[in-house]
Amino acid sequence: MGISLRFCLMVVGLVFLAETPCRAASFVYLSLGGEKKIAIYRLNEQDGALTHVEDVPLAGAPGCLEVDPEKKFLFASVRSAKQFMSFAIDPENGKLKQISAVPAGGNAAYIATDKNGAYLFSAYYGEGKVAVHRLLKNGEISDEILQTIPTDKNAHAILPDQTNRFVFVPHTGPNAVYQFLWDAENGKLTANDKPMFKAAPGMEPRHLAISKDNRFIYFDNEKGSSVTACKLDPKSGTLTPFQTISTLPAGFSGKNTCADIELSPSGKNLYASNRGHNSIACYRVDQKTGRLTALEQEPTEDIPRSFNIDPAGTYLYAAGQKNGKLAAYRISPKTGQLKRLATYEVGKSPSWVEIVKFP
After folding, report:
1. Are 172 and 206 spatial neighbours (Cβ–Cβ below 8 Å)?
2. Structural domains in the chain?
3. Which of 53, 104, 54 is closest to 78 using CA atoms?
4. How far is the C-alpha of 305 from the C-alpha of 272, rounded, in Å?
5. In whole angstroms, what is the distance from residue 75 CA to residue 349 CA?
6. Model confidence over 202-238: pLDDT tens digits?
7. Model-level pTM?
8. What are 151-174's pLDDT values in tens digits?
9. Which residues of 122-147 are buried (b: 16+ CB within 10 A; e: fewer)?
10. Which residue, of 14, 246, 281, 303, is most buried by count of CB atoms within 10 Å of its CB?
């Protein structure tokens, strides 16, 4: 009888384990340019607390980080070494194992994969160009640069739209957004029939965020201290602006430049960082029209070059590039406004924040 009971309990236990999903894990990756390393933190999804896991030393100062669509690999632009590196991500502990390191063709300010995770796009600020590398299925970056296209000085970011048919590259110097067609089968960028969208004078678009339904694209304007909302034509892949809204509070007269921009996973809120005012500008997004309504400017750390939102849309982490601190916030599920939870000393010159959630 005892053996039968133990057997039944064992079977029930096995069934319970089989039907119980694996516990989710989230990790924060920080580019620390002043220390030539990527710092890894585990994110506690219950309270937003961060626990340091380890540091990954690099040959140079890392900048932009990117994760493939399947969350298997992390890619890094090692800017001072003019390299691209790829790493396999351990979903249990967040640790990184190097796969490849290849020449980048210059000092790449921004990298992004296409929606299939088959190619790596790169934008070069100093060199004024964009490029394409092939990505192998094991996460390796091809040595060969498949394509290089000269654009203009200060190419600051590059992202494909949600359909993987169009690619956009904001440039601060020429005050324009270059518009490309993307051939995902052959890995080729081609200038759109209307090759650029010219921003209003004095704006200088820097980074961009694309709505999940692909109807709207938002640019933060580095010099203009504002966000411009554009409609995306689904047929032509061209942009039409319909709103520009300040990132600063009324009456502010100090020096300021914008840096990063992010949409919340729900798409209901948008955030942009102010360097100088040292704040995160928060907006509500009208889901029908795409128009923005300013909510607040939440104080953050000194020179917030980069920030990121966890995939659950619960927390936002903003890095102060000048003082080496990371500010952690809880995002209000009702309004999207921010409440400071903690501040972490993370190291010298944090320039990128990337958050990955498993499974």
Report:
1. yes
2. 58-191 (2.130.10.10)
3. 104
4. 10
5. 19
6. 999 999 999 999 999 999 999 999 999 999 999 999 9
7. 0.93
8. 999 999 999 999 999 999 999 989
9. bbbbebbbbbbbbbeeebebbeebeb
10. 281
